Amino acid sequence: MFEIIRYTPDKADEWNQFIAKSKNGTFLFDRHYMDYHRDRFEDHSLMFYLEGALYALMPANAEGDVLCSHRGLSYGGVVMTEKTTAAKIQQLFREMNDYLRLQGFSKVIYKPVPHIFHQLPSEEDLYSLFSICNAHLIDRSLSSAIDLSMPVKWHRDRKYGINKSFNHGVVVGESDDWAGFWQVLEFNLMHKYGAKPVHTLQEINLLHSRFPENIRLFTAAKEGEVLGGTVIYVTPVVVHAQYISANLEGKQFRVIDALFDYILHDCKWDARYFDFGTSNEEDGRILVEPLIYQKEGFGGRGVCFDWYEWTL
After folding, report:
1. What is the three-class DSSP state of 46?
2. CA-based radius of gyration for the chain
């Protein structure tokens, strides 16, 4: 039988050590990352002990009588190690559901870690969603990823963009001009969607200072002015583009084409995949075709980011 406890800050070191040795965890689950926005969410993360040893974790937050895994993260779900077995995870989900009922929850919303982020196969939780929870899919967004060991040939339109960018004197590379890029990003999001970035400039600077090897900025600039850029999240298996944006002049000069040519061909990554992120609206039901066309032009191909739900 599992002992299930709610995470408290005094468990941070134990939590982080488990994440570091897990088979499907990334630095996003480290408490130095998760807790930057702790004021926005009622944390209800769970720790599962078996015979006195920590066996699994689940980053989560509470929204009334709904447990979500975790709204502040791109993905979540049960974090496991190489010692995890399918039968024990089935037991874990049975007992977690009983625990959540006793805590007054009526529903769970669950975001598993997409398979490309797994250091080892880690879909024992998906099987338990089917066999134990009778969960159903409520959101499926389509991301675009490249297997760096078998890259797909680029569309010729992307190559045209690279040449146009360089012919106009655009310089690409890694940068520390976070303020310059954030100005471009904030304007674009507000102009197109009436929205703001998930992270403020102060928050992304804080996170970069905590994870300088994992959170990196690449920009395209002309005469010192940032025209576009991308924030890259580096995990053991995936290099992920967290933000991609260019201003009007940058779009005219096709700076994103030049930028990803540099990132994918001149930078050396130990990861297997490069992920451009999702291209959807309305809980994944609408495909934003111009956005995914650009990513597919770089060789990106489909990977699903799913959300599941079940009642207790």
Report:
1. strand
2. 20
